[in-house]
């Protein structure tokens, strides 16, 4: 069944007026699924009485039994006539969910709709432990408690401005003069933050690997913490992953990892601005570019897109939300076209 533009606008959360000025978009299918996970049996925990909803009588809650855990959620939108050769998978970063790719915090269409309009079938997922994937008990299943990001932590971490420029009062915040992040929408962005764990990488990786087996061959666009998961997913299934586009990845496979399986999997790493202001990100960048060099040393392709060096200044770590997000996406789309990933 083909969905009309109006239905598509509702599905993507786009207002009617905005949808009317966009070119028609014919969608074949919208759906979702969970992938991966395992069943865990818990026992020897005490029962307790709870009230399941206001006005309901109390019931005994038994925390023992078998539980489905560590699965991952994905939503897909498939076009009636895609122009890309392979579906595009969008993987988010730490403390975030697939919302990263949907609508920007200031209300503009995000990269999900951008790449749909470029002719890609698009899959947006919530990593295991996040969003609609759900999380599990700790320490019985997860080894530790979650960590939470404060509203101001990302100001410096995401290179919107110096940490000294953060202030709980919006009018007193000081950002980099050329920042592209929509500053008035910072608090809206903070609402997207969710708890994350630092002890669940192996479970997250397992779910992503199973996801690749279910959906691919595919192209992966990945952000920040997700970078290491995409790099390892490509190593585990180089016959399934046709390209990896890493938006400021924050991790890489272990030093000494053999990159030779990636000879036929082109990689692109995209960097924003203000690295000189962040020793933390300078160290990350050095590690990532060493991994890119290891791929090239094995005869593979690992291109670097340095936006400031290419004349695009002020982009933050959250460049898919920056005011020039479509321009950045356009450069990524052009790279995919050059790599033969479009029909």
From TrEMBL:
Secretion signal span: 1-19
Entry keyword annotation includes Signal: yes
SUPFAM superfamilies cross-referenced by the UniProt entry: alpha/beta-Hydrolases
Domain of life: Bacteria
Keyword annotations: Signal
CDD domains: Esterase_713_like-1
Key word Signal present: yes
Protein name per the record: Esterase
């Amino acid at each position: 069944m083909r969905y009309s533009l109006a239905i598509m606008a509702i599905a993507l959360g786009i207002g009617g007026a905005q949808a009317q000025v966009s070119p028609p978009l014919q969608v074949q299918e919208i759906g979702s699924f969970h992938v991966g996970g395992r069943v865990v049996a818990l026992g020897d925990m005490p029962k307790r009485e709870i009230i399941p909803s206001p006005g309901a009588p109390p019931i005994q809650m038994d925390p023992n039994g078998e539980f489905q855990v560590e699965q991952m959620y994905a939503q897909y939108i498939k076009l009636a006539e895609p122009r890309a050769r392979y579906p595009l998978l969008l993987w988010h970063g730490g403390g975030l969910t697939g919302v990263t790719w949907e609508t920007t915090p200031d209300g503009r269409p995000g990269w999900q709709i951008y790449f749909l309009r470029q002719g890609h079938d698009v899959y947006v997922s919530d990593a295991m432990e996040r969003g609609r994937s759900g999380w599990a008990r700790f320490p019985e299943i997860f080894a530790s408690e979650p960590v939470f990001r404060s509203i101001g932590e990302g100001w410096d971490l995401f290179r919107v401005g110096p940490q000294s420029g953060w202030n709980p009062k919006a009018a007193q915040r000081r950002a980099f003069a050329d920042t592209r992040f929509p500053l008035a929408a910072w608090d809206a962005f903070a609402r997207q933050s969710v708890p994350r764990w630092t002890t669940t990488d192996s479970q997250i990786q397992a779910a992503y690997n199973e996801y690749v087996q279910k959906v691919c061959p595919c192209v992966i666009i990945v952000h920040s913490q997700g970078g290491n998961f995409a790099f390892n997913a490509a190593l585990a299934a180089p016959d399934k992953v046709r390209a990896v586009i890493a938006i400021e990845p924050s991790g890489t496979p272990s030093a000494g990892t053999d990159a030779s399986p990636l000879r036929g999997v082109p990689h692109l790493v995209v960097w924003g601005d203000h690295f000189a202001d962040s020793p933390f990100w300078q160290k990350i960048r050095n590690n990532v570019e060493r991994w890119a060099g290891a791929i090239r040393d094995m005869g593979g392709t690992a291109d670097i897109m340095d936006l400031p060096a290419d004349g695009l200044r002020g982009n933050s770590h959250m460049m898919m939300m920056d005011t020039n997000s479509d321009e950045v996406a356009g450069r990524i789309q052009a790279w995919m076209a050059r790599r033969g990933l479009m029909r």
